[in-house]
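Practice record 12: protein with magnesium ion.
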Amino acid sequence: SSPLIENRGQLIVFEGLDKSGKSTQSQKLKEALLKDGQFVDLWSFPDRNTKLGDVIDSYLNKRLELDDRSIHLLFSANRWEKVSKLIKLLESGTTVITDRYAFSGVAYSAAKGLPLEWCKQPDVGLPKPDCVIFLQLSPEAGAKRNGFGEERYEKTQFQNKVLEQFMQIKDESWKIINADQNMEDLHQEIYKHIKSLKKEELKRLWEKD
Ligand code: NYM
Ligand code: MG
């Protein structure tokens, strides 16, 4: 492949239900790749540190009510406001790991009953991840983990619906991993998979190629 492809950073996305271990595992992957000498940035969506993110945080903490479509578009806008920085980082050779991305956007909104195709549209054209690590954990196991139930959406029945939607939107770039195992084994499995990825040209999400 061309030097441009060889030198670009990778976009690695963690997805999964609430409390599936994404934050812990994305942090551990970042540390491992840094140790290998790579440039790595760790992001999360929603990014609650922007003005839009502040509104999203209020919604998730039930201080604010919004129409389902309105909040869906805000989650997407919260990704788009960071895209130029994301592309700059990838092109300059930094690998970006994100804790959630557009797949959460679609899965959580579609689980409310919004049409799947409608849900995808606002995120069409975002940088396509080189890999989506999906941490699979049963909603029942997630519910037993610390902190579950505090935010909007953290109800076992709803999480089951979200899981169904995630399974609708997965594609060949997904690696589904059993998250119900110890932290270190899980990390090793993820790390090995990431190391096996071939470098390819950066594509865009949900565009016909
Ligand atoms: N969420 C997250 C959405 O509903 N749409 C989105 O686009 C994104 C990125 O926000 N329950 C939901 C999923 C989570 C919640 O995320 C907060 P986290 O990673 O649990 O802080
Ligand atoms: Mg959460």
